[in-house]
Amino acid sequence: MTVTATSVGESDQLEPRSAPGARTWARRLVRLVPAAAAALSGLLLYVSFPPRTLWWLALPAFAVFGWVLRGRAWKAALGLGYLFGLGFLLPLLVWTGVEVGPVPWLALVAIEALFVALVGAGVAAVSKLPGWPVWAAAVWIAGEAARARAPFNGFPWGKVAFGQADGVFLPLAAVGGTPVLGFAVVLCGFGLYEVVRLAVRWRRTGEVRRAAAAMGLLSLAVPVVGAVAARPLVSDTAEDGSATVAVIQGNVPRAGFDFNSQRRAVLDYHARETERLAAEVKAGKVARPDFVLWPENSSDIDPFANPDARAVIDAAARSIGVPISVGGVVERDGKLYNEQILWDPAKGPVDTYDKRQIQPFGEYLPLRSLVGAINENWTAMARQDFSRGTEPGVFTMDGAKVGLVTCYEAAFDWTVRSEVTDGAQLISVPSNNATFDRSEMTYQQLAMSRVRAVEHSRTVTVPVTSGVSAIIMPDGRITQKTGMFVADSLVQKVPLRSSQTPATRLGILPEIALVLVAAGGLGWAVGAGLRGRRTGDV
Asked: Is residue 219 within 8 Å of residue 188, measured between CB atoms?
């Protein structure tokens, strides 16, 4: 009996000791749920981006993000926003480390995620306001506006709008550009969470505020209805006749940074593909183009300083017999320019466009001394910074006005719009993606061009050194595209258009309006919080 009593006593003592430990672990796991949900919802947003066509996943991504942030203190929201940013940007931007290793990629993501962290704190602050999905969506767009401008002139890659090239919301790009398109998607996502939250509350208590329910439903419905109403703005009807355009993809000897060491080979490849196309035109197999578009860096040998490069381009232009837009690297007055050169088959070079939005840590090195102290190889790869152009580039090619937007510039609203307001009837986005191998970068950039086509109602051509080159209609449809790392050409008759969409006419105004909405919501939330503290003190 003594043994039994002792055993029972010991078991009674052990149970109270183990139960608090189990509850502690359970509480810790519960605390981790919001953090895990924030990171996973960011990952879900990434999955909604190209090359996948799962655009609709952006809605549950922002619904979960709204659930994580609603009612949180600003410090917790800051951390949760950062986790969301990491979940989204780490996989989205992995291509930035393809050739230079993980350090630049991780540094870029760490900096860009700070903007998302601030957005998280802002969303949490406005989440207690009436109609909070509207304020919260505007805060997200304000964060995107800041990312597009700082640091180092901004990095707008990963705007929500750029993941919607296949989505039902795409026509809204013609209404107010990427800010309005992105706002609609984020609003719909936060609205989805609000509807689910209120439905759960009604099921539990049988009560729900009508105003809150109406706002939740409107947050879901208005973006969809608005996108349907905007569809008439999307048209591929020719307004100024049409032009037969040829896009040349000459390919490169090898992927990565080493392709630059084969500059003459790259030039020869593009000349050869142009001459092959000319032979097909002469044989009647392909329609004769009105003009030809080469990619960025198709002639990294300066044709103004090197007679042999000039002779190669001259021969290609004469063979096809029409103007060519050539992507060159040109040195002028001791400065380097990433330049598009309009090459006439009879007159040679007659016009130029110098890239204005140049890529930090790619075409120029900010903080060069600091970067060199970290890794001398990075400064060795960019011995001389490129200089910026100052004027829009619109080439008149066989009577058609072709606006040039060089590669990285396609991510920036202002660079594309300036070409259209300067008279472009068609947009070309000459690019060089060979540096990034077969990564998702190519498809992310192609989606940007599709959004720009709808935003400004223009045909967009995308000539790329190594692919994917494409022809995009003003309604965002890709009608032709090439493979990757093959030599190829695309020839198509495309519409020329001169009318301006509301997005083109309004320019930056929709973004300013949404930033002001965000500022108003944050001001209201801060003021309400201060009043609440004063009342509590009393």
From this structure: yes
Q: Which residue has the tokens 């029409």?
A: 322
Q: For residue 369, what pLDDT is reported?
A: 66
Instruction: Give the list of residues 6+ apart from residue 66 with CB closer than 8 angstroms, or none.
Output: 123, 127, 133, 136, 189, 190, 193, 194
> What confidence score (pLDDT) does residue 210 get?
87
Q: Of 112, 188, 339, 407, which is the active-site residue? A: 407
Look-up of token digits 């931007």? 93
State the average pLDDT over residues 322-340. 96
| Count of other CB atoms within 10 angstroms of residue 104 | 19
Comparing C-alpha atoms, which of 179, 199, 180 is closest to residue 191? 199
Q: Is the pLDDT of residue 228 over 90?
A: yes
- Asked which of 153-157, 325-329, 384-388, 423-427 is least confident by mean pLDDT, the reply is 384-388
Tell me, what DSSP letter sits at residue 57? G
Helix (H, G, I), strand (E, B) or coil at 479: strand
3 state SS for 288-329: CCCEEECCCCCECCCCCCCHHHHHHHHHHHHHHCCCEEEEEE
| Whether 188 is catalytic | no
Q: How far is CA 267 from CA 95, 251, 276, in A?
A: 25, 10, 14
pLDDT at 534: 74
Catalytic choice (159, 355, 401, 481): 355
State the average pLDDT over residues 201-214: 87
- Catalytic site residue from 112, 194, 273, 296: 296
Contact 318, 292 (CB under 8 A): no
pLDDT for the residue 371: 65
Contacts of 438 (CB under 8 A, 6+ apart): 255, 484, 485
Mean pLDDT score, 383-393: 91
**In the structure encoding, which two tokens stand for residue 518, read together?**
């965000």
- Stated as kind and residue range, the H or E segment containing 475 is none
Token duo for residue 107:
């540094």
Confidence of residue 162 (pLDDT cuts 50, 70, 90): very high
Q: Are 457 and 501 in contact (CB under 8 A)?
A: yes
Helix (H, G, I), strand (E, B) or coil at 489: strand
Position 378 confidence tier, pLDDT thresholds 50, 70, 90: low
When comparing pLDDT for 209 and 323, which is higher?
Answer: 323
- What's the CATH fold of domain 242-356+393-500? Nitrilase/N-carbamoyl-D-aminoacid amidohydrolase (3.60.110)
Sketch the domain layout of the chain as residue ranges: 31-233+508-537, 242-356+393-500
In DSSP notation, 384-451 reads: SPBPPP-S--EEEETTEEEEE--GGGGG-HHHHHHHHHTT-SEEE--B--GGGTTSTHHHHHHHHHHH
- Give the number of other CB atoms < 10 A from CB of residue 19: 10
Residue type, 114: L
To the nearest 10 degrees (0 to 180), the angle between helices 413-421 and 441-456 is 40
Grade residue 362 by pLDDT with cuts at 50, 70 and 90.
confident
478-481 sheet: strands from edge to edge: 394-397, 400-404, 426-428, 459-462, 470-472, 478-481
